[in-house]
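Session log. Operator J.P. requested a structure for one protein chain; no other inputs attached. Running the standard single-chain path with C-alpha cell output.
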Amino acid sequence: LKYPWPFWLKRARAEVCSSSSFSLRWHTPMFVMGASDRSYVAGAGTAGFESELSQTSFPLSALPRSTSMDVTNDPRFFSNNVIAKRLSAFQTIVVVAVLMVNLSVKQMFTLEKNIDLSTVNGALQYTGFCLMTLVFLSNLTTVIVLIQQLFMTYRLLTVGPTGFEIAKSYYLNPNIVAMRHIAVKVFFFSLPLFVASSACMVYTSFASQNAAHLAMPIVVALFLASVLLWYVNATHSTIFKERYNLAKSHEQPLIQNLETMTQRSYGGWFSNIDV
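Structure written below.
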C-alpha cells in the first residue's frame, strides 16, 4: 500500500486491463493522491475501451489545443436552472439572426452595379445597399457573440460540482454582459433597417422598368412598417425596464429585513466571538 491509511479509508476498484483479466487496485481518497493517481482516476471512466484508434493521430496532434474537458455524469446537470432558461431565449434570437444574415447577403449580391448617385434612383439604391450591409454586419455580430456564449456557458455548467457557480461568474462577467446586451440590441435594431432597406430596393427595381408610380404604395407601407417596428421595440424595452425596476423595488424591504435579522442574531453577549 502506498499510504498508511486505516482500512475504512481504503476502497477497492476492479480495473479491466487490456488483457481481458482483472486486477484489483487499492487507493486512498482523492485529496491525498499524487499526480499519477489523479490521472489514473480521471481516466477510469474509459478504462477497457481504449484501442489503437484512441490516440491522437499525427496531423491532429499538431493543432494548438486538442484536449477536452472532463466528462462527469452528475445528476445535477439534468436539473433545470435559471441560466439554462435564459440561454434558451438567446437560442431563438440566434436562429432568427442566421436567417437575417442569409436574406441580407442575397439582397446585397442582387444589387445592380451601375449606380448613378446624381439621380434619385441611384441615391435610393445606394442607401438601400448601405442599410442592408449594416443589417448583415449587425446580425453576424449577434450570431458570433451569442453562439460563443451559449457554447462556453453550457460547457462551464457541466464542468463539475461547481459548474453552476463557474457558469454564473462567466455569465455575469461585465465584459460578457456588455457584449451580450450589444448583440441583442443591434439585432432588434436591424429589423426596422431591413424593412427600410427593402423599401429602397423595391422602389429602384420598379423605377428601372419605368413603373415607379406602382411602387409608391408599397414603399410607403414598408417605411411605415419600419417605423412601427422601431416603436414596438422601444415600447417593449421601456415596459421591461419599468417592470424590472419594480421587481427590484419589491425586493428591497425583504433584503433589509433579512439584514436586520442577521445583525440581531450576531448581537448580544456573544457578538464579539469570532468562530
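Operator note: Residues 119 and 125 are 10 Å apart (CA to CA).
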